[in-house]
């Protein structure tokens, strides 16, 4: 039941989001033809766009106290190419403070806008032209705005937590219980190799977590742009979690000791998840440190696949790193299982 919690939370979030969500209207000067929905997906997953004939028209349209626009964006022609060449295209985003009153929601829109160009160009603007217009004297900081958080963000986090939880806690428990009952020794009297035992035990939790992950993905289907890539990282994430779990199950012979160390390693794998998200992606020291852990690349791959901005080279890099680690972990688990079962 514990492992069903992310599914229940995802379902509740989606119901709340559908009930509260209304289309945000965006005024855009966009000769570059960049998809506005992708830039503001983090802040406004449901939006409609009107075209402006100049950058000045965008600002004046948002500055009007009776404006019905929530956001205004200015994207000059060749903006991404200019960023790559080191130029300073006049990118700008305006937020209507009368429509978007929460401070966190305003900053989320600004961060989402500039993060998009950083991902696309490989280098972020070294300046940020952002302005909140018509802001009230007192900005409301209420928790209702959390309902409007981006589905890709929450979906990616949920899709990482489920396999880590099952892989680290449930899967090794199955192996350790068999060790304590001495039933696993019988498997080594059969023709089955230790690697066969490892793979067979892993499949039990693997298909369980795959089923849970697919349920979560379907709950967030409206926020997923690249479902094929998302499925790839769901599969890799579950294999990675299973490989960690099988090492724990192979090494430990006492279930209480196993759970103690599983909790420690679980925390080590979970904290990098949040530094794969846009708001914490560039935090000094901690962000580079988070990139040591495979869970960072699983989360980043899931999030960028859901956002639709995962390029082939980056996807190949993430896939290669995760595949190499997972294969190595399974081989270590097979060797450890035989030694700890036969000689202990």
Kindly name the structural category.
alpha/beta
**SSE run:** HEHEHEHEHEHHHHHHHH
Quote the distance from N terminus to C terminus: 33 Å
Cα-atom radius of gyration: 24 Å
Ranges with pLDDT <50 over ≥5 residues?
Answer: 137-149
Outline: elongated
Strand tally is: 5
Into which percentage range does the β-strand content fall? 5-15%
Helix content: 55-70%
* Largest sheet report: 5 strands, mixed
Q: Can you list the strand order of the major beta sheet?
A: 2-1-3-4-5
Give an overview of the whole structure.
Helix 1 runs parallel beside helix 8. The chain has helices at 5-20, 36-39, 55-63, 79-84, 103-121, 151-181, 184-187, 194-219, 227-251, 255-274, 286-290, 294-307, 312-342, and strands at residues 24-29, 47-51, 71-74, 92-96, 130-133. Strand 4, helix 5 and strand 5 (130-133) form a beta-alpha-beta unit. Helix content is 61%, strand content 7%. The protein has a five-stranded mixed β-sheet with strand order 2-1-3-4-5, sandwiched between helices. It is of the alpha/beta class and 344 residues long. Mean pLDDT is 77; it is low at 137-149.
Q: What is the gist of this entry?
A:
The chain has helices at 5-20, 36-39, 55-63, 79-84, 103-121, 151-181, 184-187, 194-219, 227-251, 255-274, 286-290, 294-307, 312-342; strands spanning 24-29, 47-51, 71-74, 92-96, 130-133. The protein is of the alpha/beta class.
């Amino acid at each position: 039941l514990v492992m069903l919690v992310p599914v229940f939370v995802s379902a509740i979030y989606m119901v709340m989001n559908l009930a509260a969500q209304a289309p945000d209207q965006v005024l855009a000067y966009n000769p570059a033809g960049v998809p506005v929905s992708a830039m503001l997906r983090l802040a406004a997953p449901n939006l409609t766009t009107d075209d402006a004939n100049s950058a000045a028209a965008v600002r004046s349209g948002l500055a009007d106290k009776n404006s019905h626009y929530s956001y205004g964006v200015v994207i000059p022609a060749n903006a991404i190419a200019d960023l790559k060449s080191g130029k300073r295209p006049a990118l700008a985003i305006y937020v209507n403070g009368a429509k978007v009153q929460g401070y966190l929601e305003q900053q989320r829109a600004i961060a989402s806008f500039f993060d998009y160009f950083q991902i696309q160009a490989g280098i972020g603007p070294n300046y940020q032209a952002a302005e909140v217009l018509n802001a009230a004297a007192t900005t409301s900081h209420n928790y209702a705005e959390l309902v409007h958080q981006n589905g890709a963000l929450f979906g990616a986090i949920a899709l990482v937590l489920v396999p880590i939880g099952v892989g680290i806690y449930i899967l090794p428990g199955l192996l350790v219980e068999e060790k304590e009952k001495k039933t696993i020794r019988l498997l080594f009297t059969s023709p089955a190799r230790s690697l066969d035992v490892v793979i067979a035990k892993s499949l039990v939790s693997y298909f369980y977590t795959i089923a849970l992950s697919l349920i979560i993905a379907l709950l967030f289907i409206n926020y997923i742009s690249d479902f094929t890539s998302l499925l790839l990282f769901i599969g890799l994430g579950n294999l990675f979690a299973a490989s960690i779990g099988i090492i724990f199950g192979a090494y430990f012979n006492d279930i209480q000791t196993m759970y103690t160390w599983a909790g420690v390693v679980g925390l080590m794998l979970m904290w990098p998840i949040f530094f794969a998200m846009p708001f914490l992606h560039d935090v000094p020291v901690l962000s580079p440190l988070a990139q040591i852990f495979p869970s960072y690349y699983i989360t980043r791959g899931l999030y960028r696949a859901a956002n639709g901005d995962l390029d082939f080279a980056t996807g190949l890099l993430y896939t290669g790193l995760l595949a190499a680690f997972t294969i190595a972990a399974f081989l270590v688990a097979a060797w450890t299982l035989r030694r700890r079962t036969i000689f202990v």
